[in-house]
Fold this protein.
Amino acid sequence: MDLIWIPISMFGGIMQAVRTAAQKSLNSELSTWSTTYVRSLFGLPLISCFLLLAITISGQVLPEFTKTYILYSLSTGVSQVIATYFLIKLFTLRNFAVGTMLAKTDLVQAAVIGSLFFSESITLLGWIAITLTGLGVVSMSTAKIKAVSENPFQASKEVTQKSIVLGISSGFLFCLSYLFLREATLSIEGPIIFRSAWTIFIVTTSQTFVLGLILLFFRRSDFSLMRRLWRPCGFVGVTSGLGSICWFTAMAIQNASYVKAVGQIEVIFTCLISVRYFGERITPLELLGMAGILIGVMLLIV
């Protein structure tokens, strides 16, 4: 049971890959804020069911809502929403691949910032695993950029700078959301499933409420679009809910940086989908990246 966080993290990574692809498609019909909102609104029913299940299993109803817990939970929600907004915004840029690769630095940022300012305790083997996994992701992302364009950095300077800023900012805020989440789950008492369920419920509910108010005042017409697009919106919500349940539960058990390292399996999964359904070929650089990710994950298992 000590390693249960590993398959949970892997499944969370796969769900995140599927959800991100669905959000990218949905963003062609909804605004960036609405596409960000969909993951919370349509994921909340599933997360509420998870909370009820956790309460039933644990036999506990309410945790002690300390100021520290509330602060970390709300900080998780805010940083996660803004990071997701930046990531979706990247999809609207012509050379978004560069920014998306930079957003993947969230793993390394979480390890460094977490060990310096949070409760992340990373062993030497852990640092090696995180480094290998990070290099593997960069390698696969670089291969994807080369596939998009022979000379991807010749795009307009203005767009390139914007994608770089959005990518780094997204990665940094995602990194903070993982660390805040980890601290939140550690600041309350109870079984793992109880702590993770309450945290994800509070985070998602606050996101739904705040983003809902923003859209109500500034993008009210988007609500009718969401009703019309309820199927793809529902798909994003379900995959996002499942992914969040996995992330929150895994990070209640293990270091956030370790969980994200294992979750990078999503990059391999995305590549295999491209091969299976779109007939793309795996390049040597992508194979090298896959090897780095898999070795890194294996080091975290031993």
